[in-house]
Amino acid sequence: MTTIATTAPGPREPEMTDPTPSTQPLIMTSGLTKTYGRTTALDSLDLELEGGRIIGLLGENGCGKTTLLKILAGVISDYTGEARIAGHRPGPQSKARVSFLPDTSFLPHGARARYCVELYGDFFEDFDAHKARELLRFFGLDESMRLKEMSKGMREKVQIALAMSRRAEVFLLDEPISGVDPAARQVILDGILSTFEEDSLLLISTHLIHDLEPILDSVVMMRHGSVVLAGEADDLRAAHGASLDDIFKETYR
Amino acid sequence: MQFDSTLPIWLQLVTEFSRRIVVGLWPSGTKMPGVRGLAEELGVNPNTIQRALSELEREGLCRSERTSGRFVTEDTDRIDQLRAELAEGAADEFVSRARGVGLTRSQAQQLLTDRWDHHDHHRDDSPRPEGARDD
Fold first, then answer.
1. Distance, in angstroms, between B48 CA and closest chain A CA?
2. Minimal Cβ distance to A214: which of B44, B51, B54
3. Residue A244: inside a domain, yes or no?
4. Test mutation, A237, A245, A246, chain B, max B CBs within 10 A
5. Closest approach of chain B CAs to the CA of A195, in angstroms?
6. Is A71 domain-assigned?
7. Which end of chain A is more exposed for a tag (fewer CB within 10 A), N or C?
């Protein structure tokens, strides 16, 4: 079982700790398995992730990251094993708490950014349109621009502005910075960091670990549908004397 | 600031924040920036900032007030002690590197004297006096 603690591990001596924490993990999977024909995408995955954290979901292409996020988002339902979001099975109740950013565009290509903000407002009760407009401004985007007139990086920014502007408990971002140039990556990460609410859980899948090093609390490294390594970012650095990027490369060699 | 991603980031933050206190960027007795602001300024996870600030607190360099925020200690002796600790660390590093390239003590001392003023033109983090102008 991969458990990532909710409290920031400070240098202080731990006070009287309750062996069974009263707060349930925001995300829990147990024996989670998903196959596509003969291919096993998730192989009896056990995971417990708690709130108030930014967690990197790392792994090579095809290791099961996207499948895991899609199950948690309630997009894929033909899996076996257990998955819970704040105690709920993926479904209408969990979807109300989960903001999912898929790795493909889901917005009408001809629409203006302004219209996309309205669209999101119609879809999601917890959507904060004011915040979305602020993020669009932060990203230097013009609301009257149509998506098809935008570069790939700009479209990515629109989608992130929308996904991050829900008052959700769990944010699942699938490869939010891939295919975007390094300068734009930093702006996107700054935007994500500025909107992160302290109780929520942000799970970001990526293979661009280097860019995410300073913003991650902890990492879950996956391979062939299971977890190969998980832990606190700074603890892993201290234990290995290496960056997460180097540990990743070592793990997948 | 640039982080060395092979070392725990919270420890690098403790060093950076200590430096800010010692050089007076965060003057004794004044309110420190909040966690959120620091996270955005440095592009670092807020929990990591929190961990570094807790360590500063544990070391008696700042204190938290429930409602009004976090303040740099008013104990200037403690800040002087911190300055001495940081300076000692820098000196140790210099000594070990100087030894590493085979300098004698007197050569190292001479080198320090020669180079002392060299950095004056490059210092940019000393607090500027009010109304200071570039020209």
1. 7
2. B44
3. yes
4. A237
5. 10
6. yes
7. C
Record: contact B43-A189, CB cut-off 8 A: yes
**Residue A99 near residue A170, CB atoms below 8 Å:** yes
| Separation of alpha carbons A227 and A243, rounded Å | 19
CA distance A159 to chain B (A): 21
Cα B51–chain centre separation: 16
> How many A×B Cβ pairs under 8 Å?
71
pLDDT at A232: 95
φ/ψ (deg, to 5) at A125: -60, -35
Identify the domain containing residue A42 by its residue range.
Answer: 36-251
- Amino acid identity of residue B80, one-letter, is D
- Higher-confidence position of B122 and A248: A248
Residue A6 included in any domain: no
How many other CB atoms sit within 10 Å of the CB of residue B19? Answer: 16
A225 Cβ contact partners less than 8 Å away, ≥ 6 residues apart: A33, A34, A40, A41, A42, A43, A45, A63, A64, A67
Residue A57 banded pLDDT, cuts 50, 70, 90:
very high
Per-residue model confidence (pLDDT) at position A184: 86
List residues of chain B with CB under 8 Å from any CB of chain A. Answer: 3, 5-11, 39-40, 42-48, 50-51, 54-55, 58
Its pTM surpasses 0.90:
no
User: Looking at CA atoms only, how far is residue A165 from chain B in angstroms?
Assistant: 17
Contact (Cβ atoms closer than 8 angstroms) between residue A134 and residue A104: no
Q: Contact A235/B8, CB-based, under 8 Å?
A: yes
Domain assignment present for residue A21? The answer is no
Side-chain-facing half-sphere of B124: CA atoms under 13 Å: 2
Q: Indicate which CATH number applies to the domain containing A97.
A: 3.40.50.300
| C-alpha distances out from residue B79 to A32, B17, B18, B33, Å | 53, 12, 9, 18
Residue A12 has pLDDT above 90, yes or no: no
Share of chain A above pLDDT 90, in %: 72
